[in-house]
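Exercise: predict the fold of this chain.
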Amino acid sequence: MKNPLVILVGLVFLCIFVPVVVSTTLYDDVEASNQSDEINIEKQNENESKELINYESVDKDAPTIKVYNHIKGISESMNIETYLYGVLAGEMSAKFDIEALKAQAIAARTFVIYKKENPNSSGHKNSVVCTDYKHCQEYKSYETLKETNGSQWMEEYYTKIKEAVDSTKGQILVYNNKAILPLYFSTSSGKTENSEEVFSNQYPYLKSVDSPYDGESPKYTSQITMSKSEFINVITKNYPSITLNSNSLESNIKILSRSEGGSVSEIKVGNKELTGVNIRSIFNLNSANFEIKFNDDDVIFNIKGYGHGVGMSQWGAQGMAEEGFLYYEILKHYYTGTDIKDLY
């Protein structure tokens, strides 16, 4: 008969060692299975490609429009797509991502169609649009671009501009099947503005939306410093009824309200209430989203963003494009409830 002590030790060993081995083996199998699932998911994500939407449904010749050349002082007949080459070159950096350029091309084309369909808004007797950015859209001719930038730039970037326009030929933004007023600007402060809080009209597609990618813009923040006396002079020159004193200036300036997008809506200056747009205009600020700080001798404006803030932020569009968003995703983000329609 075997030694009972040896048998007991053997049973104890089996009771402890075997479960440990089994558990370890099962855990390793489960862990390997989980790692395998993670790898498969990663590979699946890597291999997934975004389903592209093709908005090209019509193939007609592009129309000819009348463009008032404010430099020459004459109206010229131009193919709308050729005109858009010059607008895109004038309104957005050709170094931007192609998807951002496509979004800008459609916005610029939509602007022309909107003006064409709403002639009373044009302001030009014999032309749909003009070449002056202060009134319509910036336009730079092929000759001007070549003279200014040189042949190498034309080869590298004008080709890219043409690609952005040509690849979206005839496409415009519509709301209820009508061309929208596609306002756009350089840089938001992180959120765009409702149209009615900046301009007199309310448009259902020009709503405040988040614009989180503007931080790379060189004009995302800016600062202007002036003496208190200079500040008072600018105010009283534009609003003679306002009385200010440098010794009590800080207590006489108070921001009362802000828009949804962050811009100053109302600001009390002395005995008068002004708008942020008023202050932006008279002090030539980059935007109406500002803070005012005071020290012993100076007034300091800390400003966020560049432009009126309504519609598409160009630097925001660039940021979205760099993150992988396509042109129609960019446009539908900034222009609420719109769709893209192919006209020709």
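Check your answer against the key: Residues 221-304 form one domain.
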